[in-house]
Design a protein that fits this description.
It contains 10 helices and 14 strands. By secondary structure, the chain is α/β, with parallel strands linked by helices. The chain has a domain at about 230-295: Alpha-Beta Plaits (2-Layer Sandwich). The protein has a 6-stranded mixed β-sheet with strand order 6-7-8-3-9-10, with helices on both faces. A hairpin with a 2-residue loop joins strand 4 and strand 5 (about 70). The chain is elongated, with a radius of gyration of 24 Å. The two termini are about 40 Å apart.
C-alpha cells in the first residue's frame, strides 16, 4: 500500500502579531498538495498577504512553522525560497532595466544557470517577447503586470504565489494568465492565489480556503463546499401577482418578489425532492405560472455567508 505524498506546503500554528498589537494571523493550520491550485479568499485586511509573505520569507512569524517540500522556511531559507515564485500585488522592479536584463537577473538571483530558451518560452507565453529589449518604464500597465509574472517564473519555481494577480487588468491578460496557470498546474507546479474575482476561484481552484480576521474559517474542496453550503433557488413567474403567500403553501417557506409577480423557493440539495410536491400543490390551488428557472448559489454567495455568520463579522460587509 503506497503512502500518500507529503504536502508541498505545510503550515502549522502560524501566528503573526505586530508590535502595534494587531494580530494578523491566528494559529493557522493548512496543507497544500503538489500540483494543486489553492484559492485563498478573504476581505481586505483578513491576513491573505501576511500569510503569503511569511511563506515567501518576507515577513517573520510570531509563532508556528512552515515547511516547503519538507524543508523549514527559516532553517533552509535559500533552498525553500528558490522553490517559490511570487507575483505580488504591486510592481517592484527596476524601471530603467530592459525586460530581458531583468529576467536574466531574476533567474541568477536564485542560483539558476543562464537559460535563454526558458526565458524566451516564458516571455512568448506572456506575449512579451517583442518587448524584451524595451525598458520596463516604457511598458503599459498591463504589460508591467505581465512582467511580474514573467519574473516570478524566470527561475522555474515549483510553487507559484499569485497575490491578487488580475486586479485592475484587462480581460485579455486575465484570459492569458489563467491559460498559463492551467499549463503550469499540468506541469506539476503548485499554485496558491488570492483574488477578489471570486468567479476565477470558482473556475480555477481545486480547493478553497476562506480567511477572516486572521483565522482560516474553512478549507474545503471546491465542489464539496458548493454542495455543502450552496443553495438553489426556484423562481416561478406567476400569471397573476399575489399580495401574500397562501397559508396552504406555508411548509415550503416561500417568498414573494417583484411586487408579488415572482414566487421564490430556496432549498438545499436534501430538499430537491420537495420541488415536485410544491408544483403539484400550486396546481391544486389553481396558481398558474408562465415560466420557471433555478439558480445555484455562487462561491461569492457562500463566501459572504461564511464571513457574515462569524460572531465578530462587520455588519453589512460583503466585499471579498
Amino acid at each position: 500500500m503506497s503512502r500518500a505524498a507529503p504536502p508541498m506546503i505545510r503550515i502549522a500554528g502560524l501566528t503573526k502579531q505586530y508590535a502595534s498589537g494587531l494580530q494578523a494571523l491566528k494559529a493557522v493550520d493548512l496543507e497544500i498538495a503538489k500540483g494543486e491550485i489553492f484559492a485563498l479568499l478573504g476581505p481586505n485586511g483578513a491576513g491573505k498577504t501576511t500569510l503569503i509573505s511569511i511563506v515567501c520569507g518576507i515577513v517573520t512569524p510570531s509563532a508556528g512553522s512552515v515547511t516547503v517540500d519538507g524543508h523549514d522556511i527559516i532553517r533552509d531559507f535559500r533552498l525553500t525560497r528558490a522553490k517559490i515564485g511570487l507575483v505580488p500585488q504591486e510592481l517592484h522592479t527596476d524601471m530603467f532595466e530592459t525586460l530581458w536584463a531583468t529576467m536574466r537577473f531574476s533567474r541568477g538571483l536564485f542560483g539558476r544557470a543562464p537559460d535563454a530558451a526558458h526565458l524566451e518560452k516564458v516571455l512568448r507565453e506572456l506575449s512579451l517577447w517583442d518587448k524584451r529589449h524595451d525598458k520596463i518604464m516604457t511598458l503599459s500597465g498591463g504589460m508591467k503586470r505581465r512582467v511580474l509574472i514573467a519574473k516570478a517564473l524566470a527561475h522555474e519555481p515549483e510553487i507559484l504565489f499569485l497575490d491578487e494577480p488580475t486586479a485592475g487588468v484587462d480581460v485579455e491578460l486575465r484570459r492569458d494568465m489563467w491559460a498559463l496557470v492551467r499549463r503550469l498546474r499540468d506541469a506539476g507546479v503548485t499554485i496558491i492565489l488570492t483574488t477578489h474575482y471570486i468567479e476565477e476561484a470558482e473556475e480555477m481552484a481545486d480547493r478553497i480556503g476562506v480567511i477572516s480576521k486572521g483565522e482560516l474559517i474553512v478549507v474545503e474542496e471546491k465542489a464539496r463546499l458548493m454542495k455543502k453550503l450552496g443553495k438553489k433557488q426556484l423562481t416561478l413567474h406567476l400569471v397573476e401577482p399575489m399580495a401574500s403567500v397562501p397559508e396552504a403553501l406555508g411548509e415550503w417557506g416561500l417568498a414573494l418578489a417583484d411586487g408579488g409577480s415572482l414566487l421564490e423557493y430556496t432549498f438545499d440539495n436534501e430538499q430537491c425532492a420537495a420541488v415536485p410536491a410544491l408544483l403539484r400543490r400550486l396546481g391544486d390551488l389553481g396558481i398558474g405560472f408562465t415560466d420557471l428557472n433555478t439558480r445555484q448559489s455562487s462561491l461569492e454567495d457562500i463566501f459572504v455567508s461564511l464571513v457574515s455568520e462569524r460572531p465578530d463579522a462587520a455588519p453589512g460587509r460583503k466585499s471579498a
